[in-house]
Write a structure and sequence with these properties.
Blueprint lengths: L6 H6 L4 E4 L6 E5 L5 E9 L2 E9 L5 H16 L17 H13 L5 H19 L9 H12 L3 H20 L11 H8 L19 H8 L5 H12 L3 H5 L6 E3 L2 H7 L3 E5 L10 E5 L1 H7 L21 H14 L18 H11 L4 H7 L7 H5 L6 H16 L2
Antiparallel strand pairs: 1-2, 2-3, 3-4, 5-6, 6-7
């Protein structure tokens, strides 16, 4: 039997689950795995039992939550749906709650898994610590300034994007009537006055592994275990983007017979569908024999991904980034970009491969096709009908030999 809530219980309870108040109001106290606490109400409307979100624990006290639940019961008894009651829009909703309500709408617009992950992760890491538990109608420009200031200088590009994402969430809150206009996250004439103007470095590239350090880095990588290390090895061997390798599925791999593999000089083809590619066109990648040693064999008990995360889903972008950072920190010489002096990142391995091609005067066309880049004039590209798969198979075999020979 459900016991009546007490303020002390609500403050101290930590086990993630739903707790039910005594009485017949249907009041629910929800503790999430993240530690966030919120109110809900189970109520029957038009013969159907539904659950209404009432707000965060920080925004509504026990007394206020019980009062709101009683009010909703009264409205239902009069044939009024609490969801559409006029003053329902005045109810406090936290920034976290509104974000959770808005993200499914935004994600429907995004096809790139990396962008979806970035939206969610950057809001959780940068916006939520300061704004997450604030009621949206109480958020001021100074609150957003406080959230962004710690990263505004050192991670300005990311901070700019997060500001835009906060603005989108609050635009949704305004459209839903959860808070009045204007939007406190607006830039012009608002945050542009509160945050310093930092010029955008349009020539700033992802830090690349110095070609002179490539063999040393490769040897260090092969001393590491786990799906992240194998995925990073394939990023290097294929000169692919991290998201393309992390999203690699068994169904995308076609292996040759032993005779055909011997004839061609590589083991098979990895066909990446257009929906997963930056340029929105399907792309074939030759699979060398060395690549196969990192791909391994399908695990029927796991998901369809070649490189599974610990929970069985897709590996996160942070897994590969963190691995490269650990490798950099483990060697006194580190692995630095020769131009910027910054530690190399997974995406920079593509530039390392391109430098190797240039240094050895190998096929520019094959390299650009391997990178899934357009090259030459629009006329030249329009008449280029082959993807040079066989030639790229030989090129990537040479690249693997270069990395492996010490």
């Amino acid at each position: 039997m459900a016991k009546g809530f007490t303020v002390q219980f609500l403050k101290n309870v930590k086990e993630p689950k739903r707790y039910y108040d005594s009485g017949n109001s249907g009041l629910i106290f929800h503790v999430r795995k993240t530690g966030a606490k919120s109110w809900a109400q189970r109520i029957r409307i038009d013969g159907k039992q539904i659950e209404l979100g009432l707000g965060s624990f920080d925004a509504l006290s026990l007394t206020e939550a019980r009062s709101l639940a009683s009010r909703n019961k009264m409205l239902v008894s009069k044939g009024i749906n609490p969801r559409y009651a006029r003053d329902d829009k005045k109810r406090s909703r936290s920034f976290r709650e509104v974000t959770e309500e808005y993200l499914p709408i935004k994600f429907a617009e995004l096809s790139n898994e990396k962008h979806i992950e970035q939206w969610q992760r950057t809001l959780e890491q940068i916006a939520f610590p300061r704004l997450g538990n604030l009621a949206v109608q109480k958020i001021k420009s100074a609150d957003i300034q406080s959230a962004l200031s710690p990263v505004w200088k050192d991670r300005n590009e990311t901070a700019r994007r997060v500001r835009g994402r906060i603005e989108s969430v609050l635009n949704y809150a305004i459209a839903r009537g959860y808070r009045p206009a204007p939007n406190p996250a607006a830039w012009q004439g608002n945050l542009s006055i509160l945050l310093p103007k930092i010029p955008i470095d349009k020539e700033r590239h992802q830090p690349a592994l110095n070609l002179a350090d490539a063999k040393r880095w490769w040897e260090e990588l092969n001393n590491r275990d786990g799906a992240g290390a194998r995925a990073l090895a394939l990023v290097a061997l294929t000169a692919s983007r991290s998201v393309e390798v992390r999203g690699m599925k068994w169904e995308e791999i076609t292996l040759f017979s032993s005779t055909e593999a011997e004839d061609k000089g590589f083991a098979g083809i990895w066909t990446r569908p257009a929906g997963r590619m930056k340029e929105k066109r399907a792309h074939r990648v030759p699979i060398t024999h060395l690549m196969m040693s990192y791909i391994g064999a399908p695990d029927q008990e796991q998901s369809g991904y070649v490189f599974n995360s610990p929970n069985g889903g897709i590996l996160s972008d942070m897994t590969l980034n963190a691995l490269m950072k650990r490798m950099h920190n483990s060697d006194i010489r580190g692995y630095l970009d020769i131009k910027s002096g910054r530690p190399a990142v997974p995406h920079g391995l593509r530039s390392t491969f391109r430098d190797w091609v240039a240094e050895n005067e190998l096929s520019r066309e094959a390299a650009e096709l391997q990178l899934d880049h357009k090259f030459g004039s629009s006329v030249e590209h329009a008449y280029y009908r082959t993807d040079l798969l066989d030639k790229r198979g030989k090129l990537m075999t040479q690249w693997g030999i270069f990395l492996s020979n010490h």
